[in-house]
Amino acid sequence: MPSAAPELRPKVGGDTEKITINLGYVDLGHIDLLVQDGFYSNRTDFIRTAIRNQIERHADTTKQSVARKNLDLGLRHYSREDLEAARDAGQMLHIRVLGLASIATDVTPNLARAAIASISVLGALQASAAVKAALADRIR
């Protein structure tokens, strides 16, 4: 009977973030043994699988928290036009994302400050250094 494998997603440039972790030698040795015995293709495969298993284990709690905190889940891109429309309507955006929030490269620091009241991202925020600096007091 075949085992259930995690769903594989095609890799698209920019859909991952590099992190660094420190592991004890014994834990690292256990991972290497599992790789050597063919359970995983490499250390990264093991770590990704472990992370996905923990996320799945806590899926119900996460769903409740996402709903309670009113977070956009996944990828949320803000274009210059989006921010101009909010500014022109006299509305300030409260950006709340679990995943990746990106602000277009043609957004100026002044436009960002005029249109964005706050940013809370669990995951990664992609924006120019100038926009991030302009919004530094609004990023949580």
UniProtKB/TrEMBL annotation:
Per UniProt, what is one Pfam family of this protein?
RHH_8
SUPFAM superfamilies the UniProt entry points to: Ribbon-helix-helix
Q: Which superkingdom does the taxonomy of this entry point to?
A: Bacteria
**What is this protein identified as?**
CopG family transcriptional regulator
The top of its lineage is:
Bacteria, Pseudomonadati, Pseudomonadota, Alphaproteobacteria, Acetobacterales
